[in-house]
Amino acid sequence: MLNLASILEQSALRHSDKAAFVLGGHGLTFGELDAAARKVAGALVSMGVTRGDKVALTCPNLPYFPIVYFGILKAGAAVVPLNVLFKAREVEYHLKDSEAKAYFCFEGTAELAIGKEGAAGFGGADGCDHLVAITADPAAPSPLAGATTLGALLAAGDPTFDTVQTGADDTAVILYTSGTTGQPKGAELSHSNLFMNCLVSRDVLAFEPEDRTLVVLPLFHSFGQVVLMNTGVLCGVTSILSPRFEAEAALALMQEHRISVFAGVPTMYWALLHAEAEGVDLAAIAANMRLAVSGGSALPVQVLREFEERFGVPILEGYGLSETSPVASFNHLDRERKPGSVGTPIWGVEMRIVDDEDNEVPTGEAGEIVIRGHNVMKGYYRRPEANAKALRGGWFHSGDVGIMDEDGYFFIVDRTKDMIIRGGFNVYPREIEEVMMEHPDVSLVAVLGEPHEQHGEEIKAFVVPAEGTEPTEQGLIDWCKERLAAYKYPRSIEFRESLPMTATGKILKTELRS
User: Which of 510, 421, 504, 413 lies closest to 462 in space, CA to CA?
Assistant: First the structure.
């Protein structure tokens, strides 16, 4: 038997009075976190949630996220984290597809209507029976019609609830990801998948209880959730939360809280190098920082070198996917780091480079990266055909093109998917294309990513207008903004009379890129 929540229970025993998560001037100790999570678990069980059920969670980087996350696990259920930028139609889809029984949703702010969109999505998701509003003030009434509040559950909850025993192979978390075709798919990660990834991350990053991490990566994303939140809880680390990333604010937090470990995506490192550092003592930050970690997409070598020079700290670059829990490879502190490389496979994991027939290619030649080991997902939830393709031959097929050098280091070359990585977020062109095709003035559309200095890639749409119409660039952008999360909508649109195609009618995006 294994429940991922055991990592919290052990730290609550060893570090009961130590701050686990800090936001602003307020801290939540490991003991308080464990007690609150037990109350959430008891409330879920009283709602009828049982072992194996799914419970969705939309919450930014606030202490409420780990409270609910570990509460769901303690109830024996699986967590379905949702992006805080999702619109109602996206929330509804994910609640339906995951078959969620309950949904916890933060009320949002004037600038980001998380609660409004979440409630609207919940309203269209038959089978999801319970809506719980997470309010900034625990004593506040529910801002969402028909919803109870997390504050009410905590006030009435039982801090002695006994964690439901789950199997190591039971699903602990469903992380949604996608390809270039179809709708997003839920990667089922077991308690064992995630527990092993925590153990390996602990060893790779050499985490100690004295470390203090700055958590600007969103906790709903696998990188922030597993490498920082879960591994930090396992190791008794104090995590400083930041609900959104702003470079100047991040530098100030690094100095104020004497941050020793920072993890981010490449665009964050770029922003930190270009931030106005007035009033910030970079030397003091560098004195406390012992390690930086990068993932999500390839870190430009020039950015890596400039950051390491300015802050006097090594950046360990790694590679992984939602389907691999997420870490698959990493550079290591105790061996050579190769700039531009994502390192070598982590303990217990194998990686290969194969051709289109799944034959291993010679060293130095490009091919698809395939992975097997304790980190590989159980499969996509309710997607047998996708699983047969992605997990064929006992290896997970990443869709990423890479090479392996003579020392066993891996380098990411390209993606076989058309996925765009904008600011560390995965953006799937097919989803945007489908939304744009719903516009009456759009006849045909192709979406792709273009290189961008700050965001890594930016989203561009090529549109063939419907006959007799004259759509405007801003009009189509506004259409997408109303229907897609903020990181997904195209920032530029080019109108064309036609799009290049193959004989079978497939759009040749390679020609659009040229």
Answer: 510
Would the pTM of this model clear 0.90, i.e. be above it? no
Dist CA 496 CA 446 (whole Å): 11
Strand 261-264 relative to strand 212-215, pairing: parallel
Strands of the sheet with 456-465, listed across from one edge: 442-452, 456-465, 492-495
User: Cα(331)–Cα(315) distance, rounded to whole angstroms?
Assistant: 9
The H-or-E segment that residue 294 falls in is strand 291-294
- pLDDT tens by residue, 322-351: 999 999 999 998 889 998 899 999 999 999
DSSP per residue, 26-53? EEEEHHHHHHHHHHHHHHHHHTT--TT-
Contact 451, 457 (CB under 8 A): yes
Whether residue 300 has a cis bond before it, omega within 30° of 0: no
At 185, the amino acid letter reads: K
CB 44 within 8 A of CB 76: no
Three-state SS at 82 = coil
User: Is the CB of residue 282 less than 8 Å from the CB of residue 310?
Assistant: yes
Whole-number CA gyration radius for the chain: 23
For residue 298, is pLDDT > 90? no
What's the token pair of residue 274?
């270009």
Residues in CB range of 171: below 8 A, 6 or more apart: 52, 78, 188, 189, 190, 378, 381
DSSP H helices in 257-383: 266-273, 282-288, 301-311
